[in-house]
Amino acid sequence: MQQRRRFKQTVSLQDRISSFAETARKVAALLPPGAERDVLLRKARQADTAANLTDWVNSPGLQPPK
User: Fold this and answer.
1) What is the per-residue DSSP string for 2-17?
2) How confident is the model over 9-26, as a mean pLDDT?
3) How far apart are the first and last CA of the chain?
4) Biggest CA pair distance of the chain
5) Rounded to whole angstroms, how far apart are CA atoms 21 and 41?
6) pLDDT in tens, 29-66
């Protein structure tokens, strides 16, 4: 049986998502208008949404369903 490779993350998920979104926006700013730029901007928006969801899930005001 194969052993799973384990990797301990040193940077939090929130930081990695934010970093990805920032990098995607910087790269998109250098590209001319077109499909590739649109894809990068869409991925950056999705990363922002994921970050917002992570914040919401980890918020202290979140109540479990009844």
Assistant:
1) PPPP----SS-HHHHH
2) 92
3) 42
4) 50
5) 8
6) 999 999 999 999 999 999 999 988 888 887 787 666 66
Rounded distance between C-alpha atoms, residue 47 and residue 61, angstroms: 23
pLDDT band with cut points at 50, 70 and 90 for residue 16:
very high
Percent helix, percent strand, percent coil in the chain, to nearest 5: 60, 0, 40
Closest CA to 28 of 9, 42, 13: 42
User: Can you give the pLDDT at residue 2?
Assistant: 81
Cα–chain center distance at 17: 3
- Provide the sign of the torsion angle of the four alpha carbons 56, 14, 19, 5, taken in this order: negative
Give the tokens for residue 47.
């990363």
